[in-house]
Amino acid sequence: MFASLASLEVKYLVIGGIAAVLYGVPRATFDLDILIEASPQNAERRLTAMELAGLR
């Protein structure tokens, strides 16, 4: 998924538990929260990235 987002230059941030872990906070989490920039162009790139990653 991240390779698809990067290849299409989707603007996003990793937030939530995974972001905390990346900053060194010891925390268990079982999901991934991503904040996508809310522009029409970015939304279109995000949909294409999800399709390329095999997501629906």
Structure, explained:
There is one protein chain. This protein is α+β, with helices and mostly antiparallel strands and 56 residues long. It is 46% helix and 14% strand. It contains three helices and two strands; from the N terminus they run αβαβα. It has helices spanning 2-7, 16-22, 40-52; strands spanning 12-15, 33-36. The protein has a two-stranded antiparallel sheet. The chain is elongated and about 35 Å long. The termini are close together.
Indicate the structural class: alpha+beta
Overall tally of domains: 1
Poorly predicted runs of 5 or more residues = none
Strand content: 5-15%
What's the quick description here?
The protein has 3 helices and 2 strands, in the order H-E-H-E-H. It has helices spanning about 1-5, 15-20, 40-50; strands at about 10-15, 35.
List keywords for this structure.
56 residues, alpha+beta, two-stranded antiparallel sheet, 3 helices, 2 strands, 14% strand
Helix-strand blueprint:
Elements: H1 2-7, E1 12-15, H2 16-22, E2 33-36, H3 40-52
Antiparallel strand pairs: 1-2
